[in-house]
Amino acid sequence: MIAGLILAGGQAKRMGGADKALIHLAGKPLIAHVVERLKDQAKDGMAISANGDPARFANYGLPVLPDRVPGFPGPLAGILAGMDWAKAHCPDCRWLLSAPCDAPFIPRDLAQRLLSALQSEGAELAQASSGGRDHPVIGLWPLALADDLRHALTVERLHKVGQFARRYKRALADFSMQNGQDPFMNVNTQEELMTAQAALRSTMPE
After folding, report:
1. Is residue 42 assigned to a domain?
2. CATH number, position 8
3. 135 touches 127 (CB < 8 A)
4. Secondary structure letter of residue 23 according to DSSP
5. Does some domain include residue 133?
């Protein structure tokens, strides 16, 4: 019942303006780490939200969805594109699992725990939190909200993910830090890239 969406629309402005999804971590692009962690959680299909030349993601064999809302309105437009794609190509899906391309430590039980939190609280959508912080773009979205989201983007010009999510009954699934490592760490700077490299090395077998 769950389709997956990797949000890959950002540029690494603090790392020279490169395509963030393709920055290498431990020998492979950041997005490859996220694909590997989500592939078994979104068995009904997965897509990448990105503008520009889709050929740069050809190695992953996934649909690449450009924004349908003009003006680069941010990740909400990507989530809407993911919802529309899932409704058209995954007829049995009820949910869209979204995650950013620059979070290489996404938990392998993310979908399961988001869905459990949503069901236990009788909520309409679920989002992740860790270390006392919410992560609005890491969430489980009902596809039934697609028209509401389209209206928010095109008529209200709403761009903030958290603002949209708070319109509905929202469950938060809290993920604890693991060995001092935030499971939702974003790689935005060279320093964070080095931290991620060290974290990966520490989990590799001798």
Report:
1. yes
2. 3.90.550.10
3. yes
4. -
5. yes
